[in-house]
Amino acid sequence: MSVSLFALNSTAQTITAQDVEEAIAETYGFKPETGEEYLALADELVSVYPLDINNQLSFTHILDVPGKTKDEIFIAINAWFVASFNDGKSVIQMADKDAGIILAKGYLNGVGHRMGFAKSVLVGEYIVIRLDIKDEKIRLITSISEYYMETSAGVGQMLFGGAVPKDVTIPIYASYPFDKKSYKSYKREAAIGYVGGIAYSHVLKNKVEKAINMGITGTEGEDW
User: 125-129, 161-165, 201-205: which has the minimum mean pLDDT?
Assistant: First the structure.
C-alpha cells in the first residue's frame, strides 16, 4: 500500500543555494557571476545533458550500499526527507516500503539569482525525485520539468520606477537550449536554472549517501 507521508520544503531543506553554488564551482572550476557566463557554460553542457523523452532534464545515480537491507535503506532515507523537507508547496506522491519506492514532487527555491536592469529574478525549479530501493542498492532519479521565475524590481525600477514583470512558470523544454524566441527575456535565467539543476542532482546524491551512512544528525548509532 502506498502512503503519503510528508511534504517537501524549499526553504528549510538541508540542501542550500550555497551547496549548489559550491558544487558548480567544484565541478567546473569556477562559479559564473553573470547571466552571460551562465549562458556560455550552459551552451557547453547541452550536448552532455540533453532532455529526456519527456522533455525534462533528468539524472540517474546508482548508489551502492554494502551491508544494508532494503528496509534499513528505506527507513534512513525516509527519515532524512522528513527531517529535511516540510513545506506544503511540494508533496510526496508515493512512499511504499514494501515496493521500495519513494516518489516526490518538490520545489527548489533560489537555485540561482540574476539582478538585471528591468527586473531581478530569483530562479526556482520544480523537480520530481524518485528513489528505487533494494538490498544494498539505490537508484536515484531526479527530473526537472519547469522553471519558476520570481521577479522583483531591477536596477532600472529602483532608480526610475515602472512596472515589475510578473512571475512566470516556464516549461524547461520551452527555453532549451535557451530559446531566443520563446521566453526571450528569460534566457539567461533559464541558463542559471539549467546549470543549477545539474549541480543540484549531484548534491542530492551526496546528501542521500550521507543520510544512509551517518543518519539525520550523524549521532545515531546502534548502541543506545
Answer: 161-165
Position 71 scores a pLDDT of: 93
* Domain count of the fold of the chain: 1
C-alpha pair distances (Å), 106 with each of 17, 84, 115: 15, 12, 25
Q: Label residues 74-88 b or e (16+ Cβ within 10 Å = b).
A: bebbbebbebbbebe
CATH code, 153: 3.30.530.80
Looking at residue 205, what DSSP letter applies? H
d(CA 67, CA 45): 36
pLDDT of residue 180: 63
CB 23 within 8 A of CB 199: yes
195: containing domain: 17-213
Averaged pLDDT score across all residues of the chain: 80
CB 106 within 8 A of CB 200: no
